[in-house]
Amino acid sequence: MKNKGLGEFEELVLLAVCILKGEAYGINVKQEVEKHSGRSVLLGAVHITLYRLQDKGLLKSEMGGNTEKRGDRRKRLFEITTQGMKQLEAAQDVRQKMWSLIPQLNSGQ
Amino acid sequence: MSSKNPPKLANWLLSKMVGEELQEEFLGDLQEIYEERLSAKSKVFARCMYWVDALHLLFGFTSFKIFKTQNNNTMMLKSMFIIAWRNAIRQKQFTLLNIVGLTIGISISLIIGLYVYHEKNYDNFLDQTNNIYRVNQPNIWGDWTEMSSTTGPNVADALREEVPEFREVTRILNQGSQFTSYKTKSGQVLSFKEDQLFWAEKNFFKVFDYEMLLGNQETALEAANSMVLTETAAQRYFGLDEALGQTIQMREWDGSSKSYVVTGVLKDLPTQSHLQFDVLTSLTSAKEQMDMHGWKWIWTAFSTYVLVDDGADVALINDKLQAIPPKYAPPTTKRIFNQSFEEFTAGNPWKLDLQALPDIYLSSDPPFNSFGPIGNKQFVQVFMAIGLVVLTLSCINFMNLSTAKSSSRAKEVGVRKVLGSLRNSLIRQFVFESVLFVSVSTILALVIVSASLDWFNLLAQKELTLEPVLMNPVVWLVLIGFVLTLGLLSGGYPAFYLSSFKPIEVIKGKISKGQQGKTLRNGLVVFQFSISICLIICSLFVQKQLSYTSKIDLGLSDENVLQIHNIEQFGFNTEVIKSKLEGIAAVTLVGKSFGVPPNVMTGDRYRSTEPDAQVFQLNNLRVDDDYLNVLDIEFLAGRNFEFERPTDQYSVILNQAAVELLGWTTEEAVGKHVAVASGNEDEFEVIGVAKDFNYHTTRQAIGPLILISDKNDKVWDYGAGLSFLSMKLNPQSIQTSSDLKRVLDQAESALNEVDASIPFEYSFMDQAFEDNFRTEQRMATVLNFFTLMAMIIACLGLFGLAAFSAEQRTKELSIRKVLGANTGQLTYLFSTGFVKLVIVSILISAPLAYWLVSLWLEGFAYRTPMQLGVFVLASLISLIVAILTTGYQSLYVASRNPVDTLKGE
């Protein structure tokens, strides 16, 4: 599965985890994705993706950060791995390259 | 269901299905997001989304596991699942009909199941529940064949003396409404009216081990003038912290007050109890009354409870009890009635019967409970029947649709067989599909029930809860058993039938599609419609009966009669209040009485003064000379009281029923004499005969009634008991609600001028009559709803069958069209088949409904006539509904262009 590349939603989730820097868990990832993409996302979808990314080795996680709001339960905090970072960058690169190949439309023509 | 907590059921499901390592974060996330949604949006939204998220996580993470392990079984399961899914999608209409019908059916039977479970589990919270019995005796005041839950005070004494098998014997008495007051630390006086106040003996808690928050169970009710409150009652006065040792004043009959010391606070009583009280006072506080009357067997206001040892032979003890009344009751009959025991009982056995505590709430004999709620066995049975019927209906639907649908899969089966599929695996596929359908519907039904239970509780005035019931593993076993049974039954027939096809015949098209089982399907439709029509007729009659009872001629005018309660608290002289009330502009007449219809319950034993006259039980009502005019009572003979004549103080008026019972004609009665058959037998002259009027619930026929002057001091209960002032209002002057408010304010200030400490309470007579049927009204609403649901289920089934039949007959109808039939003829041809089924159902259900309704109506004295119109109406409703359901399909089929349907041939 390693070189399969990232799905669109997976990419959004990975980016959200990066933005949240060590604080990422189910709910705030969901909110982050919703905030930037402007679409509503189900909690379950986020969880499934997070776990899939972890299985792919792009994320790692540990439990922590319990708060009263959650009935004193811990969160699973996700963090990006080096490999994850590499994948993100690779995806970004592909896009960048392809963007640069679009023939420039000159104004005035 | 508290609003703060997320659905427990969803949590429970998650905790069972999802791996331990994931639970903590999932539940945490769910709760966090739930609270956010709760504060941002509505509770319903938050709860629904909680379910969506929880189920999403559940399926997301369990299927993960299943589909990841790549072994043969899970592969097969996955493939079966996919095939089921594809079939469901391909036939969206059938899928939807199936799921909706089943879900409605299961939801309704679940709700009814919860209701029945709730009603059947009264008084189950006590440690000793199964060892507690109540002692009942015959209703010695009327019909001796009927049991009464109350006994005289001496019964408990006698049992203690005679039956060593009883570990404890305890008695309680409902004191009715009492006025209390409490002086706070700041010197303010708080007054309350306590409606649920019992006398209890010191061993009360040994039998009923209610949880005590403060105080000592052993001693709380020992000393005179001690009082135990429930938590809510204590909060009303002073809160929990300083409850013990506080003093509460209680007003006595003569206007003085008595102090009680709080010795204990109980946790609030569970609602599922036939005893409901706020305050207990120790029986030793009533020493005076007990010394004077404690030996009596006719002061039937106590309930006596006994506690036996584990494994006691109750039947044997019960036999032994029968010797007690003949031994202990004679002093009572002798001293009070001057009759021997045998004369008093007149051959009726004065038995004592032990009734097990859990049986009390739902028993219809004895029919009354003076200490709290009593259930209605009839309702429980009716609802149980409806629940079963609705469930059966939806199951039949499901089976019907599955068998109909399956024949269209004959080709699939043929091809699968050609490709080497074994019969077993085909059977498994069909059964799997139907089990899947049933499970999905069951899960949906659980969600719907948990969401709509609040609403149902409001409707039925119950406090049903789903979660605690689902924690019970037996319930889950039943649910799983149900899913498997229904799945096997409905999937079984197509499974075995279809899988037996010879592939060659199927593919050649030799199997005529859908003909098999047609009779069965039609039979099932007839069954469904019979039940629905029957329900429609029944609920129409219930409505009719209820509106009938509210419209029958009561024999009195109950409109615009405002009744002021608590008049007895003002003492004997109420003339001042009366004249003050008469001064209010809108009031035309004011009368005083010691009871108000429909709640006149008091009675005594009377006889005529003729030689050898028999003794009869008559209801009595003490009134002043204006009261009967307030009610606009018609006199058939004689006259009303006129207190200007001194002799009228000791005159009486009888109603028709009483005159008949005493064996007179209306004309003879005036001038005769009646005596109270106990005490000193003073004779009272009959001065009038009143036309029968309803002074009691209209459920019963009008009983014999004797009207006594409120000034008659020769009756033993002179001056005692509740009294009321009833005001006839002029309808012209109370046309708006502000008019009414003004009258009420004026009446209240009139009373306050005399004594401001007595709470002002009022009622309207017409409302009181209506309230008599409130439970029936409520149940009628619920019944209507269930009837509607049953009808919907039946229609879904019919719609499905029509759709199926339309599919099957498309070619036939097209050929007819080619040969010259027009759309109208085709539609007619297509629908008649279904209409015939409905007509058969009408013929079956009408007599059944007739029988059921007449059975129900037997319980009423005034019955609505069984009009043919109702049957016709119900038949029309069902016919129209059936035609509408099939109409769409028939029109669709009939209007299709034959070219489109026949070009394949």
Automatic annotation (TrEMBL), chain A:
Organism name: Roseivirga spongicola
Origin superkingdom: Bacteria
Protein name: PadR family transcriptional regulator
Domain annotation Transcription regulator PadR N-terminal: ranges: 20-89
